[in-house]
Every structure is written in C-alpha cells, then in structure tokens.
Amino acid sequence: MSGTLNTELFQKSYGFLVDQKEKEIKELKREISGANKGKNKNKYSEEDLQTLRNALGKNKDEMHKFKQNEVKRDIKKEHKRNVAERVKKGARAFFMKKGNFLKNFSCLKLKNR
Predict the structure, then answer these.
(1) CA–CA gap between residue 61 and residue 17 (Å, rounded)
(2) How many domains would you assign to the chain?
(3) Does the global pTM surpass 0.90?
(4) Rounded CA gap, 57 and 88, in Å?
C-alpha cells in the first residue's frame, strides 16, 4: 500500500458502519429476547441461540474496542494540539509519557460512562 491514512476522513466516509453495527446489535438482542418468549420459543434450537449470543458478544466487543480507540485518538490529538501551542510560545516539544496517557485515558473512560 502507499500513502497515509487520514483517520478523520476515514471516519467521515465510513461512519455509517458504526450505525449499522449498532442496529445489528439491537436486532440480535431482539431476536434473542424474542426466542425466549411466547410462540417463538421453539423457533430456534439451542445451537442457533448460542450462535446468536456469540455474534452479539462479538459485535459488542467490536463496538467497545472502537469506542476505546476513538478516545485514545482524541487524547493523542489533544496532546498534539497542546504541544503545537506551546512550541509557538517558545517551549520545547515533548512526547506524552505512557503513564500520563493511561491516566488521561482512564479519566476520560470513567467520564464517558
């Protein structure tokens, strides 16, 4: 491959996939809850229900990981912006330490809950 990845453009272009994944999660939840109730109780075998549960878990994990990566990207972007402002004022550029990054990440993660 050649070129660079522009994550913001990628998110704008393929943001509909996130919405589609959320709809799929809702649909799977509805299918699983519907299979356990009423006249649809015998519609699915136990294997089919387990397959639906596995797919639901996989989709939830993917969405959780996507949201975590989004928060990490935001932290890095904010840090770069702050460093650029400091460099304009005459300070030296510096890299964020891993401990500070993890501290910021955990704070934002708790705030977003």
Answers:
(1) 15
(2) 1
(3) no
(4) 47
